[in-house]
């Protein structure tokens, strides 16, 4: 039996949570044992990911709750709140990684070993697989919390890639007697911090836009207007607005119909408008229609 939509989202987040716990133990343990600054920083980042993933898990469960008296439009924005929280965690992680790496540049370079490189490679491959898996599930189900988790994994891919390059470069330098490669580890950490910070800013901006109820794309609005105006009774398009509410969209329509129409006719037109808009965009779960009178000669 195929998994239902909520169970797919929850499974993806549970897998991410367990993976983050295991990778945190792996990277911080190996990093502390061998003095690898970039691996320690990456492990601390993963520790923050555990908190972020717990938030995503909670929000995913809350967002699937049906509408109630206190939340008549549903609980979809719980996922957006979690996405904003993940962005904050990523931003703090970026600052931590950058600070830790800069401090490492002022200290004597640590001698790199093979085991930290192996740990970084394992983390890179593991996180890459998690990113591919969660981004696919997040896009399938249009789940903001799963997408936020996926982008969190992507930040870890950047961090692990930089760790692999930094530690690998230092190991090559030790073998070739290149002294300038000794600081490849912290330099890689600084690059990681910038990449993670960029990702955090982009995620945070998207979450704030949705929480502030920014309108959907102009292309989507044009599509709604087109299907509505194709209905014969619609004589005037007064306004079409739409906003994301987590993993779904709510549309607000105002149109003009002949002033002599009966209440029953107006009711039937409203139902037809809702049907057309919801059929043209599967993300729409609610269409609020306001009918205005239209007179011949306008």
Uncertain regions: pLDDT < 50 for 5+ in a row?
A: 1-6
Number of strands: 3
Q: What strand order characterises the main sheet?
A: 1-2-3
Strand content: 5-15%
* CATH structural class of the largest domain: Mainly Alpha
Overall form: elongated
Provide the gyration radius in Å. 25 Å
CATH fold assignment of the largest domain:
Alpha-lytic protease prodomain-like
Portion in helices: 55-70%
CATH architecture tag of the largest domain: Up-down Bundle
Quote the distance from N terminus to C terminus: 57 Å
Q: Name the CATH homologous superfamily of the largest domain.
A: Cation efflux protein transmembrane domain
Question: Please, how many domains?
Answer: 2
**Category from helices, strands and their pairing:** mainly alpha
The SSE order reads HHHHHHHEEHE
Largest sheet: 3 strands, mixed
Please explain how this structure is put together:
With 298 residues, the chain is mainly alpha-helical. The protein folds into two domains: 207 residues, Alpha-lytic protease prodomain-like; 77 residues, Cation efflux protein, cytoplasmic domain (Alpha-Beta Plaits, 2-Layer Sandwich), CATH 3.30.70. It is 69% helix and 10% strand. The protein has a three-stranded mixed sheet with strand order 1-2-3, covered by helices on one side. α2 runs antiparallel to α5 and α7 packs across α8. The protein starts with a helix and ends with a strand.
């Amino acid at each position: 039996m195929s998994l239902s939509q909520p169970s797919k989202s929850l499974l993806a987040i549970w897998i991410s949570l367990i993976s983050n716990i295991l990778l945190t133990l792996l990277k911080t343990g190996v990093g502390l044992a061998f003095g690898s600054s970039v691996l320690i920083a990456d492990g601390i980042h993963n520790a923050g990911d555990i908190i972020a993933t717990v938030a995503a898990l909670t929000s995913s469960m809350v967002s699937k709750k049906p509408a109630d008296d206190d939340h008549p439009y549903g609980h979809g924005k719980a996922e957006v709140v979690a996405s904003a929280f993940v962005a904050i965690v990523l931003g703090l992680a970026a600052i931590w990684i950058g600070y830790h790496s800069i401090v490492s540049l002022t200290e004597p370079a640590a001698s790199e070993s093979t085991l930290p490189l192996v740990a970084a490679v394992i983390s890179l491959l593991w996180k890459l697989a998690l990113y591919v898996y969660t981004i696919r599930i997040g896009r399938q189900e249009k789940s903001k919390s799963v997408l936020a988790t996926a982008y969190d994994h992507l930040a870890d891919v950047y961090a692990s890639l930089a760790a692999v390059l930094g530690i690998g470069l230092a190991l090559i330098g030790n073998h070739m007697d290149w002294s300038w490669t000794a600081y490849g580890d912290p330099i890689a950490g600084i690059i990681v911090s910038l990449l993670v910070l960029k990702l955090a800013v982009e995620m945070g901006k998207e979450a704030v836009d949705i929480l502030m109820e920014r309108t959907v794309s102009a292309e989507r609005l044009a599509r709604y207007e087109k299907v509505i105006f194709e209905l014969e009774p619609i004589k005037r398009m007064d306004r079409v607005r739409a906003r994301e509410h987590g993993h779904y969209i709510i549309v607000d329509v105002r149109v003009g119909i002949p002033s002599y129409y009966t209440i029953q006719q107006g009711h039937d037109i409203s139902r037809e408008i809702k049907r057309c808009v919801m059929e043209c965009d599967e993300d729409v779960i609610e269409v609020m229609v306001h009918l205005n009178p239209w007179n011949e000669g306008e």
